[in-house]
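Below is a filled-in request sheet from our internal design queue. Each sheet records the structural input a requester submitted and the sequence that came back. We keep these sheets so that new team members can see what a complete request looks like end to end.

REQUESTER: design group, bay 2
PRIORITY: normal
MODE: inverse folding
CHAIN LENGTH: 181
BACKBONE (tokenized):
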């Protein structure tokens, strides 16, 4: 015998299934959308790539690279270098998007720029794997690959320095951020 309660339960199941079908097959639905990053909307970088490189990438890359050469790394040092590597990883995506600088759109539309950005991300992921394992020789190797990636990209896209009048102030002017005081 079908009761009101039973009908309500069945209609709930049918309603849920219909909603799922509509959500996954409707134009513009999650299932219909491409999963590539190039087709998603994003908020544009609100500074030039160069300014972001000097303020974020350069600092973080120096710290990741130098941690590979440190005599020893404490637990706190490993956490600190992980933060720098995470900043660097996020920056890899940012430099691929373009910002407000006069050369930014030309750079990001160049397939070679995108390849260098992808290498930066790859090398930073390698560094993060080494950091998670607290494997300093692997961090050193990843840091060296990262330096080679940075220098290779700069040879092509930024052979002279500074651009936009922005200069990096070396971190050693302020002391070693990896050192525990």
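RETURNED SEQUENCE:
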């Amino acid at each position: 015998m079908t009761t009101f309660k039973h009908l309500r339960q069945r209609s709930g199941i049918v309603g849920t299934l219909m909603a799922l079908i509509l959500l996954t097959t409707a134009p513009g639905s999650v299932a219909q959308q491409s999963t590539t990053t190039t087709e998603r909307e994003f908020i544009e970088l609100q500074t030039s790539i160069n300014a972001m490189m000097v303020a974020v990438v350069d600092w973080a890359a120096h710290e990741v690279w130098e941690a590979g050469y440190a005599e020893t790394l404490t637990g706190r040092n490993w956490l600190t270098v992980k933060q720098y590597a995470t900043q660097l990883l996020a920056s890899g995506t940012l430099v691929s998007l373009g910002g407000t600088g006069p050369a930014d759109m030309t750079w990001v539309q160049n397939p070679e720029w995108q390849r260098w950005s992808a290498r930066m991300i790859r090398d930073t992921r390698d560094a993060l794997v080494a950091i998670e394992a607290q494997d300093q020789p692997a961090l050193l190797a990843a840091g060296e690959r990262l330096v080679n990636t940075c220098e290779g990209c700069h040879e092509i896209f930024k052979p002279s320095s500074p651009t936009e009048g922005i200069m990096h102030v070396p971190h050693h002017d302020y002391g070693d951020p990896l050192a525990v005081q």
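SHEET NOTES:
- Residues 1-36 have pLDDT under 50 and may be disordered.
- DSSP finds six helices and no strands in the chain.
FILED BY: M.R.
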